[in-house]
Design brief:
The chain has 474 residues and is of the alpha+beta class. It has two domains: 234 residues, no CATH class; 150 residues, no CATH class. It is built from 18 helices and twelve strands. The strands form five sheets. The chain has a three-stranded antiparallel β-sheet, with no helix packed on it. The protein has a three-stranded antiparallel β-sheet with strand order 11-10-12. The longest helix is centred in the middle third of the chain and has 15 residues. It is globular, with a radius of gyration of 21 Å.
Length: 474
């Protein structure tokens, strides 16, 4: 196993989906591609370089925190962590802060800011999509990779605690931060409650919907979502885990639909997303940085093409991708995601601006999950849409999938291919809610690690090892 790999990969900056504008959170969406449809591009020439510049330098969100507070957050940590931070050097404390909130370091940048945040010119930090879609793999920043370490709840809570401390009150009495309607920001470290965020935004703008969620918070079906990598956006005909939405610049914007921005301001972002979508379309997957057994990988390709390619496509000089949605009763993975967007919400969005008033509608029913492209799969752990499986080895061996697991801060397992993780039969006793979130508990609703048994059913043990080696080459 490799730990704390600090060699910087070539900058393959990639991200998007929607600038999450909640005052203390951001979320994930999924990728998109077609860059040549003139009506959708507003007559503009899509410019990937401009898209990156917008993402890194144009604030489209409300402030999350004061820039000066970035290095003060440790002052409200639990006593042991605070003591360690107080005794640390500034550089060590900086690393501790980044590790706690799952922030990725910027590449070739001396500002000291996380990749997922930018200054608004008024002393504040504003979130951008890199906070979910710009992560570290083995301690190495790969913009465009899903952030497998993000902890929105801890960040939002600590920001509130710091404000309470500055008012001269006891920060330890501040409960875990939640969004309106008793909405968790995150359930486990490395995931977000992204799908439900959109419903929360709608509820804050629509009094009738808001009253429903206030009186019946159980209407919001909270669940884990694993931020996906964006370099596979270009291959998809429809986007999101269930492939229910069309590929348009506006479809990248729903999480920017904040109650803190007027509709006019929200609509004004559309030109930005024309360029942002082009940026996503230009992303390429990172190359596996370790040694590959070429002979074994060739054997793995034969087994992969026999068992896996029908759903996940073929790779190499003439790649194919079938954009195949697998029905839930066949795939058998956690179904909570499919149930969490109600028909009334789908119909409402189809009638509105985001879907071009019905011209580019979302599907009214989700029946299963898209069999994802596997380019750069070595860098996309954990696996499944809810991030419930830490390595490809566990994906291939269902009986060995851990009921509970905990990732290290920066480690990468290049034997099992995925996160370096410790397994448990149950969640150990913890002192704080934050410590509990560090353990991924697959018994939690929406967090099941079951399903996708095809490798176990159709590959023998030697073939599994060979296919794992082949997947490193994609």
């Amino acid at each position: 196993m490799q730990k704390n790999i600090r060699v910087r990969y070539t900058l393959q900056l990639g991200m998007v989906a929607a600038i999450c504008i909640f005052s203390f959170m951001n979320s994930s969406a999924e990728g998109n591609n077609d860059t040549t449809v003139d009506p959708l591009n507003m007559g503009l020439t899509p410019d990937a370089e401009k898209g990156l510049d917008i993402l890194m330098n144009v604030p489209m969100a409300t402030p999350v925190m004061k820039e000066k507070d970035l290095e003060r957050l440790w002052m409200v940590w639990d006593a042991p962590s605070k003591l360690m931070a107080a005794d640390a050097t500034p550089e060590q404390r900086h690393d501790m802060i980044f590790d706690r909130y799952g922030w990725a370091e910027r590449v070739n940048d001396t500002t000291g800011l996380p990749l997922g945040y930018l200054p608004d010119g008024k002393g504040n930090l504003v979130t951008n999509c890199f906070s979910c879609h710009g992560g570290e793999v083995g301690g190495v920043t790969i913009p465009g990779a899903g952030n497998a370490y993000i902890d929105l709840t801890t960040l939002a809570t600590d920001i509130r605690k710091l404000a309470v401390l500055d008012m001269g009150r006891d920060p330890d009495k501040v409960p875990d931060a939640m969004a309106p309607f008793k909405t968790p920001l995150s359930i486990h470290r490395g995931t977000t409650n992204a799908v439900v965020f959109a419903s929360v935004f709608a509820g804050l703008r629509d009094p009738e919907r808001g009253k429903l969620y206030t009186e019946h918070p159980e209407e919001l079906l909270h669940h884990d979502m694993n931020p996906p990598a964006w370099w596979n956006y270009k291959k998809k005909e429809m986007i999101y885990a269930d492939a229910f939405a069309p590929k348009t610049p506006r479809q990248l914007m729903p999480f920017a639909f904040s109650p803190f921005n007027s509709l006019e301001k929200f609509y004004s972002f559309e030109e930005n997303f024309v360029h942002i979508q082009e940026y996503i379309n230009k992303l390429e997957p990172p190359k596996y940085p370790f040694e590959i057994d070429s002979a074994l990988a060739k054997k793995g390709q034969i087994a992969f093409d026999r068992v896996c390619s029908e759903c996940h496509g073929t790779y190499g000089k003439n790649p194919t991708f079938p954009n195949k949605v697998i029905k839930i009763d066949k795939i058998g993975t956690d179904s909570r995601r499919l149930e969490s967007i109600y028909l009334k919400d789908r119909e409402a969005t189809n009638a509105g601006w985001l879907q071009y008033f019905g011209e580019y509608p979302v599907l009214l029913e989700s029946k299963g999950y898209l069999a994802q492209p596997l380019d750069g799969i070595w860098a996309t752990a954990p696996y499944f849409h809810n991030g419930s499986v830490p390595t490809l080895y566990h994906l291939f061996n269902i009986d060995e999938r851990p009921a509970v697991w905990k990732r290290s801060d920066n480690g990468y397992d290049n034997v099992r291919v995925g996160l370096e993780a410790e397994s448990f039969d149950s969640v150990p006793e913890t002192n704080t809610d934050r410590e509990r979130r560090l353990y991924y508990d697959t018994s939690v609703v929406g967090s099941s690690n079951q399903g996708h048994t095809f490798p176990d059913d159709e590959l023998d043990e030697d073939e599994k090892i060979a296919v794992l080696e082949y997947l490193k080459t994609l």
